[in-house]
Amino acid sequence: MNFSRGYTLIELLVGLVIISILITLAQAAYARISDSVHLSSARSSLTDSLMLSISRSVTYLDPVVLCPSQDGARCLDTFDWSIGWLGFVDDDGNGVRSDNEKIITRQMAIADGLTLVTSEGRRRLRFQVGGSNFGSNVTFSFCSEQSGALIETLVLSNTGKLHRETPSNESSGAVCATNQVL
Q: Are 137 and 155 in contact (CB under 8 A)?
């Protein structure tokens, strides 16, 4: 008997279809994991900067400003913190960094795919001696650049307490759309 060994064209095509489906599923899973890691990293960096600023104002009785900054040296007048941020001791109390004022924290831009915006009216945070901040509570919103959806929020109260919130579906897109400054 003569048996031919090998695969038919149909078998090869079915195998290719199965492999392409598996690759597509793996890419989607990888993208979700990657987004989650980027969000976790950005959240951790922001939390570290907030806690360091509060700690500095309590420990050394220094007024501290935390603000969006693209170059790590000067504050920008924007709600968009995705570009990075800067924390400094505000010796003269004017909310603007002078060359002689000490930088205590600096963060470069967060990962692509995420946008970080603050509540309207909160383009910088000013921590008073003792750790509380001027103004109302501030909400930091992490948004997806692809979908524009709100992923997560961090809320900092005036007393310096920070808590994380997962947004409801009703509020999901409005915050990201209204606060983004291009």
A: yes
- The single-letter code of the amino acid at 173 is G
CATH number of 37-179: 3.55.40.10
- Listed as ranges, residues in the chain with pLDDT below 70 are 1-4, 168-175, 177-182
Enclosing H/E stretch for 156? strand 150-156
Distances (CA, A) of 105 to 7, 46, 74, 174: 62, 10, 12, 30
Domain ranges of the chain: 37-179
pTM: 0.81
Burial (CB < 10 A; 0-12, 13-18, 19+), residue 117, is: buried
Spatial distance between the Cα atoms of 55 and 93, rounded to a whole number of angstroms:
18
Residue 26 DSSP SS3:
helix
Query: What per-residue confidence (pLDDT) applies to 181?
Result: 42
Tokens 């048996």 found at: 3
